[in-house]
Request: fold
Amino acid sequence: MATPVPSLSVERLSIDVGGGASRRRVVDELSFALYPGRTLCIAGESGSGKSLSSLAIMGLLPKAASVPGGAILFGNRDLLSLPDRDMQALRGKRIGMIFQEPMTSLNPLLTVGQQLAETLRRHEAMGRADIRRRCREMLEAVRMPQVDKRLTQYPHELSGGMRQRVMIAMAMLCQPQVLIADEPTTALDVTIQAQILELMRELQQQFKTSLLLITHDMGVVAEMADEVVVMNQGRVEEHGSLEQVFTAAQAPYTRKLLAAVPVLGTTPPPAALTEKPVVLAVQDLNVRFALRHGWFERPRTVHAVEGLSFELRKGETLGLVGESGCGKSTTGKAVMNMLAYQGSIKLLGQELNGLTGDALQRVRRDVQMVFQDPYAALNPRKTVFDLVGEPLLIHDRTPEPERRARVAELLQQVDLPAASMERYPHQFSGGQRQRICIARALALNPKVIIADESVSALDVSVQAQVLELLERLRAEHGLSYLFISHDMAVVERICHRVAVMYAGRIVEIGARDQVLHNPQHAYTQRLLAAVPVPQVGRRRDFKSLLKEFVPPNPIKDAGFTAPPQRFSPVGADHWVAME
Reply:
């Protein structure tokens, strides 16, 4: 039997960044081979050199980077020695790439059809009619609904999952031999992630493409990989088949990475807190946004949250889960009184609706928020002392010496040295920045903390550390968390109870194990079916998820009132919405 010929080989590739005394090695002698129809995953945490390696293959390294040694062989040519004109001919035609963030990769000034056509005009000698036909066929291949409409739309008019489908279609237009996917599902909801993974599988089988998948999600690795390279700080820690890496890992770093992955069904049941007093009570919460309209148009509103009710007890973590657009974050902002709403929100028995001025400021001491993106949540021009101590200055006008002592205490509680207070946010890693955000939220000894996707942007091992920190702080301070997330394994890791949101409403609510391991609502079942499992031999068939699950239109005529929601008990502390 003939030995298979690799589509692309990387041999002892090294990449340096900077020059002179500041020069440092970020990729050190990386080697692997890609074969037709097979998938190789490069796994590792931020800063491991994964993305820089893919940019080197595409000839897109930043100016500050240099390649002191190695080779990238495509056919009989070394891509590192090719002139830029030859690389441009290969890039997009024979080697395609799907970037991590489609919104920054797509041109906001061009329609989807114009951007797809531009790729074909650059690489293929085709007429206008043939170009349009090929664009339509490729969008249909990635299961894009209403193709003709999408071709005329701009990127901002599409959802995140649709934009990523456009990126995949663009990368596959010329049927490349090699497809590089750099964290293609990181920012997506679990069901959209499953759809994208299934699309990549189908397209790979159809076109016999070699797939290089870069990710830090070991669940995605287990679902997709034939072969795995584990990288850490530029070095290869482990290289082998999927089964070798997952069942007989040799490197301590690989074992640590696998141990940090939250897996559904492995967390012991939490203690019941049904006897604890209610800290936060939400009743019939409605959040609506008026749409602008013309003289002769009827006033219309977006019903973002509709008839939401739940309770949060002392020391409890309630998970609020669902896909983007379901109203999770809007609910958190309403609890913070950051937007107008109808209904009742009571904190320790005090009604929050209608509070203003000093009364509202006093209440905000007891409800704090940890946002998803620590980069955006921290002012880059302020020191950690200023950022963490700011609530003390605003609410208590605490003198500087006392404020400094309190900030040092808070930093120690989140496992950061007191000396960190003199540094700026950019001098910390993503996980450390999130710890700073948690310290700031703790400054006024709140009763409730709203964690809005607070670990979704973190590497798996850092995510595990932050979850352990949140758990410890909850136990030490008797905190109650409203934990907003779309990651079901993370929700199981930290929550006592779970509420599943769909189209602005709760469709299922109850004890964590009841909801996650005995789901009754079709939408909850769909969410759980989409969770990638980081275990060999348990690959899921996501084909059923490719069918669009279209939520009801949230735009209604002004004055529209939805019928009250009814729930049916299906077990002890487990309720499901009646259709």
In short: The chain has 21 helices and 23 strands. The mean pLDDT is 88.
